[in-house]
Design goal:
There is one protein chain. By secondary structure, the chain is an alpha+beta fold. The chain has six helices and three strands, in the order αβββααααα. Strands 1-2-3 form a three-stranded antiparallel sheet.
Length: 153
């Protein structure tokens, strides 16, 4: 059993910004190839800033807490600032994660980056190559799971 600190447990038990945004400006998802957890983000953008963000996770306490804290970290930030947020920033904002759970913070940031990819693409804005490559990879994997009958968030 993993020992989570009080901040992780707080964000697990009292999740922030859970749900979907209807007609979101960007929607993105990411699936951990390490543990199978799935996180999805919805973003609303105005004047290049994230003004609203929501998430859903099918996964463990660390994945849920990472998504929750990340929604708080990105509100009011520009797209450029959001793309600079790292898994270490997420884990640090949570007061740390057990070593075996650090990948959960990467899952949250990758799902958010996929939502940014969606926003940039829809608005015909330049998309960084890294975002395009990760998007292409995850879309194929998610489609494969859907084709197998999995119900995804």
């Amino acid at each position: 059993m993993f020992m989570y600190n009080p901040k992780v447990l707080e964000h697990y038990h009292d999740r922030r910004n859970v749900g979907e945004i209807e007609n979101a400006d960007g929607v993105g998802a990411y699936l951990s190839d390490f543990c199978g957890d799935l996180t999805k983000f919805w973003i609303r953008v105005q004047s290049d800033k994230i003004v609203d963000v929501r998430f859903k996770t099918q996964g463990c306490a660390a994945s849920i807490a990472s998504g929750s804290i990340l929604t708080e970290l990105v509100k009011g930030k520009t797209i450029e600032e959001v793309l600079r947020i790292t898994k270490e920033d997420v884990a640090g904002a949570l007061g740390g994660l057990p070593e075996q759970k650090i990948h959960c913070s990467l899952l949250a940031t990758d799902a958010l980056r996929d939502a940014v990819y969606d926003y940039l693409s829809k608005n015909r804005l330049p998309v960084p190559k890294e975002l395009s490559e990760k998007h292409d990879k995850i879309r194929l994997e998610l489609q494969r799971l859907k084709d197998m009958g999995y119900v995804l968030i």
